[in-house]
Amino acid sequence: MMISGTMKSFYTMKTLLFSWILMVGGVSGIGANWGTQTSHPLPPSTVVQLLKDDGFQKVKLFDAEDGTMSALRNSKIEVMVGIPNDMLLTLATNVKAAEKWVSENVSSYVNDGVNIRYVAVGNEPFLQTYNGSFIQSTLPALQNIQGALIKTGLSSQVKVTVPLNADVYESKSGQPSDGDFRSDIHDLMLNIIKFLSDNGAPFTVNIYPFISLYNDPNFPVDYAFFDGTSSPVVDGSTTYNNVFDANHDTLIWALRKNGFGNLPVIVGEIGWPTDGDMNANLNFAQKFIQGFMTHISTGQGTPMRPGPIDAYLFSLIDEDEKSIQPGNFERHWGVYTFDGIPKYQLNLGMRNVGLARAKNIRYLDKKWCVFKPTISLNDANVAPSISYACANADCTSLGYKTSCGDLDAMGNISYAFNSYYQKNDQDEVACGFNNLATLTSKDPSTLNCKFVIMIETDSGFSWRLKGVRDGSVIVVYILYMSFMFLITLF
Ligand SMILES: *[C@@H]1O[C@H](CO)[C@@H](O)[C@H](O)[C@H]1NC(C)=O
Ligand SMILES: *[C@@H]1O[C@H](CO)[C@@H](O)[C@H](O)[C@H]1NC(C)=O
Ligand SMILES: *[C@@H]1O[C@H](CO)[C@@H](O)[C@H](O)[C@H]1NC(C)=O
């Protein structure tokens, strides 16, 4: 009795201490990236309530979608609003367009009580996969947006920045002190940094230890987290035990080497996915994000940049419409599932209890679309049906060592069919598959593998319209109608 009581107060003390450290350590609260590439988005007001309930004080957006921005009105949540890369060229070449963007997407919302603090001009525009498409337009767009902010009198309260992938800098030796900007964009980077510095604006960088592990099978796993010691990187008198600090400080060295050692740095994205790859799972994600929170809660910073770290977790909610070109994990970055349920517990320092879930979620009916047990697995229609379902819905949980990786062959056909059916709002036409599929009210989920039921949403309808537009649903529908017509004839 004594012991458990003591233990309990020990844990309470620890939690209180953690919260206290977060506040006193000068961390201005944790932020989250709120992306909306999803077929069944939660209502924006529900998401804003979730952010408040769980103590997120900042949010980073990838565009200025009206529903999202309006929901943030009077919430006090600090907003970094984004400009998509495909707008950069227009904003770079047309001052009036930049002024219009600021007027419509910053001034009007600021006047309406949205706490906008940053404009993110582009999103990782210098990623090598973009083949240099945005090299010319990023800096002029940044300049025009800054000019427009000055003109409207907002430039002291709203700062510009460019969220950049960590591959804009490198260290040939692997030691942070050898850090410098990538040689093909070195001069451009210096011009951008000088512009940010002249305007009191921060550098924003996205850092992904998960990707280090994903890209390199020999990467020491514990170096990706915050409690490892097996593979330190020794850099002069400094020893790095985690790749986050080492990567961050490679940037600080690069800035310092080029004369901007004091430029403020924001970590625009940091996180860990939970599915779609052998290293993407709940344990690793929880360990990484909690480790990161504890790491920054001390206010110690990194060896080269002592002090609080300003960061946005990536991401808030899973997005089932993201491109899986980078990998199958791409749709699983959320701290919450698509329907606003925390995937694992986290102490973000603002509450003593863990994360809450989104409130008042309305689900579709409890029914699933599955493979008919009477059909042979060798049926010639099976393979094309799976391909179709997976191409148009989401099968990223079906690979090796993923959440549904242990299903048998029938199980993974059912998984694919159900995914397509739910994404189409349980439209019966979407559970056809040449008669291979059938509906069931018995949940086919297993311990690790969840056969989802989608949520009700207005934009579920617009997703279906998109399907109609690209012809697939309409063809199925016409076939179905002609079939019914033939039946009535005979
Ligand atoms: C404001 O942002 C939205 C969403 O990103 C965009 O569609 C719209 O074109 C922007 N307005 C202007 C005037 O550029
Ligand atoms: C970049 O170049 C590669 C190879 O030339 C091409 O396959 C890819 O589509 C290009 N990507 C973009 C975004 O232009
Ligand atoms: C489906 O299940 C089988 C096991 O019977 C597995 O070998 C196969 O890789 C799975 N298919 C997919 C797409 O994951």
Quick one: how many beta strands? 17
- Indicate the structural class: alpha/beta
Shape: globular
CATH topology of the largest domain: TIM Barrel
Mean residue pLDDT: 90
Key features?
two-stranded antiparallel ribbon; TIM Barrel; disordered N terminus; Methane Monooxygenase Hydroxylase, Chain G, domain 1; disordered C terminus; binds 2-acetamido-2-deoxy-beta-D-glucopyranose; alpha/beta; nine-stranded parallel beta sheet
Structure characterization notes:
It is globular and about 70 Å long. It folds into two domains: 2-56 and 162-331, TIM Barrel; 368-489, Up-down Bundle (Methane Monooxygenase Hydroxylase, Chain G, domain 1). Helix 2 (44-53) links the parallel strand 1 and strand 2 (58-61). It is of the alpha/beta class and 490 residues long. It has helices at 2-24, 44-53, 66-71, 88-93, 95-111, 138-151, 186-198, 209-215, 221-224, 243-257, 282-297, 382-392, 409-423, 458-469, 472-489, and strands at 31-34, 58-61, 78-83, 116-121, 159-161, 163-165, 169-171, 179-181, 203-206, 233-235, 238-240, 265-270, 301-302, 305-306, 310-313, 368-371, 437-440. A nine-stranded parallel beta sheet has the order 5-4-3-2-1-15-12-9-6. Strands 7-8 form a two-stranded antiparallel sheet. Helix 5 (95-111) packs across helix 6 (138-151) and helix 12 crosses helix 13 (409-423). One 2-acetamido-2-deoxy-beta-D-glucopyranose binds next to loops. One of its GO terms (biological process) is defense response. GO terms for molecular function: glucan endo-1,3-beta-D-glucosidase activity. Residues 367-451 form the X8 domain. Its main location: membrane.
